[in-house]
Design brief:
Znf_CGNR, about 190 residues, ABATE, ABATE_dom_sf, Zinc finger CGNR domain-containing protein, two-stranded antiparallel ribbon, 4 strands
Amino acid sequence: MCLVQDLLNSAGRPAAAVPDLLETETAAQAWLDASLRTWGEQTGRAARRITVPGEDLPALRELRDQVGGWFTDEAGEHPPRPVRADLTFHDGRLSFEPSGDGAAAVASVVYLEALLASHTGTLGRLKTCRNPSCGAAFYDLSRNGTRVWHDMRTCGNTMNLRASRARRRESPSEGRSPHGERPAGPDTLTGT
């Protein structure tokens, strides 16, 4: 799932001063090399070298948008495209090797990882931060899988404070009118 998460996090987030890592051929190749290295370490597979030519950048960004759509209300509008993979059977285990070149090879790895995650029940733990100015993808390691912020200190505290302030603005305090005045009633000193 690390490659799927890395793909989602390659998007630029101006509010967090994060550039789009798929904007240029050089940046995209550096991102992909690092992501495939991490993927290889986490899966125990040999890191594969995939070269992404400049003409594949729009397809990579489209793949990112499509996969990002899986984690929103528009999931049905972003069905996966067909990809190729080579299956091998060795020592009693069936495994896959992504197939293709450039963006097609990246799509093959991403879709196959997402497929495996959906079959093991871990795809639902990949989430995007609910802070609208963040949107970072994260893997929810909480026991019950209910985290909504990628980082509680930065995004969670900020959003919870905003929500608390909004609730206080919307519901006036007990015994006060919406304008902060005490309601009219009998005078407690005179009883009238």
